[in-house]
Amino acid sequence: MREVIKAAFPFTIPVMLGYVPMGMGYGILMVSSGYGLLWSAGSSILIFSGTGQFVSVNFLTAGVALLQVALIIIILNSRMMFYGLSFLDKWNGMGWRKWYMIHALTDETYAVLNTAKPPEGMDKQKFMFAIAMMDQSYWVIGTILGAIAGSLLTIDTTGIDFMMTALFIVLCMDQWKAYKTHEPVFEGLVCSILSLVIFGPDNFMVPSLLAILVILLVRRQPIEKKQAVEQEVRGENI
User: Fold this and answer.
1) What percent of the residues of the chain are helix, what percent strand, and what percent coil, each to the nearest 5?
2) Cα separation of 58 and 154, whole Å?
3) Which residue from 6, 56, 61, 33 is spatially nearest to 157, judged by alpha carbons?
4) pTM assigned to the model
5) Do 56 and 90 form a contact (C-beta atoms < 8 A)?
6) Which helix (H) or strand (E) holds 233?
7) What integer pLDDT is reported at residue 155 of this predicted model?
8) Has residue 82 got a pLDDT over 80?
9) Shortest CA distance to 21 belongs to which of 170, 142, 155?
10) What are the residue boundaries of the structural domains of the chain, listed by start?
11) Contact indicator for 25, 80 with CB cutoff of 8 Å
12) Are 135 and 167 in contact (CB under 8 A)?
């Protein structure tokens, strides 16, 4: 497993650079809202949803019931159902690790799993598991460091929740550079804008995700053919 972790680590560096400071921001925000280290670390281990965790802080401080907070987080992360569908075949035969992969699948881990390739001869499932495990460890470590720092320092936490948006932008740029086929990006952008205009800022997420899913299912084969041609060209150049 050590060799697998060594091979997977370089692919997780961009996530580490985002998750550790962002996790620290979450830990600081939790402590400033009256929740200690155990609450912060526990939520990062059991929930592990950056968006859901940042949003839940406001609900918890407002006294919203835990069940309601859980339902809100599930709705916010409904997009993960679409992510998971693309990995069902790849995760078959992983045993208990499959359930962990489902739990640990985030936007950032999904992006890395779609681009990272294991060395020749290495078990791909172990390689994917190592990536997911390291990504969550970065988030948990960052959360613990933030909670400790937040308990020792008094700072203004305004704007900390924007860290999640900033990381998404960086990941999108990385995906843009990794593929010459940018059709999915434009389709996602158009669907999101139209849904925002039609349904409003409070209700556009689910319709936009459904529209993106339908379009990508229809356009799946042409996009995959373009990517296959791109890989062949890269192989010839190498």
Assistant:
1) 80, 0, 20
2) 19
3) 33
4) 0.67
5) no
6) helix 220-237
7) 67
8) no
9) 142
10) 2-160, 179-238
11) no
12) no
